[in-house]
Specification:
Elements lengths: L1 H26 L7 H30 L2
Length: 66
């Protein structure tokens, strides 16, 4: 089940990148021109940073309790 979720995410991201690239080439506009894109990018980055920090903290805690 976890492999299926991972594959779904990978192919979903791949399709989104292809669609966004084609849209940018057809319209001549870039996604960075839109405020919602910049906000969404910051939110995704924050989630990734918090996830990495939580894994780091939990691994330190786990190692300290051994």
């Amino acid at each position: 089940m976890n492999n299926a979720i991972g594959l779904f995410l990978v192919f979903g991201i791949l399709i989104a990148v292809v669609v966004a690239t084609n849209w940018q080439e057809k319209t001549g506009r870039k996604l960075t021109e839109f405020a919602w894109y910049r906000i969404a990018k910051k939110i995704v980055l924050a989630i990734l940073i918090l996830g990495a920090a939580s894994v780091l903290l939990l691994s330190i805690y786990g190692a300290a309790t051994l």
